[in-house]
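Example record

The entry below shows one chain as it appears in the dataset: sequence first, then structure tokens.
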Amino acid sequence: MTAIPLYQLDAFTDRPFGGNPAAVCPLDEWLPDDVMQAIALENNLSETAFYVPEGGGYRLRWFTPKIEVELCGHATLATGALILEKLEPGRDSVSFETRSGTLGVKRDGDMLVMDFPALPAKDVDTPAGLADALGKAPIRFMRAIKNMAVFETEADIRAIEPDFDYIAGMDGLGLIVTAPGDGSDCASRYFAPHAGIDEDPVTGSAHCTIVPYWADVLGKDDIHARQVSARSGDLYCRMNGDRVVIGGKARLVIEGTFRL
């Protein structure tokens, strides 16, 4: 029997039951890909992160219950929080080699901040049927790696009851919906049925596209973003050239052992 440490953290929140839960499994060496995918399916969270030591840092990978993904913000924040706040509390920062390059997590006051690549979207034609799939037509439709539909108000975002089959069939990776926020600079939700996640509670990687858009529209680099899913979460972001700095908190809620 193989015993694997397993932690669950709620990311982009300072309280249990908020933000986005992620599982984190520290490894001495990689498990077979199919085993990691099976563990992610067993956990049934939007992402399970696995990491192994490499150089002075670590190599990090992320799996949804269905696929391995190229970039995940909340599970990176959760992994950084686990290392910096529990496993290696003497450290002030940690770096991860990933499919999206080197990603860092470091302390910044009472928060942890991540350094991610900016992925600005470009205007494209609104797909036929989108208004029916969302219950309302957006005022703008854009695409980077993820699709993004812009609406007028936060109330519009909260009211959306999406057709997940439609979104799963779209070009691009899922759908961001965003609008000016009531108590924040911007509000958003993110739907990713293509990856086995109908709605992701709080999505760091989506803000690689959300933040460049609102920084340009609002004419400022510091953006307080709120993802208004049922769990909700706050992200404190800053444009830094072609990078997006994403800050937040994470709360450890479960410690255990996965037994194979």
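Notes for this example: Residues 109 and 247 are 10 Å apart (CA to CA). The chain has a mean pLDDT of 96.
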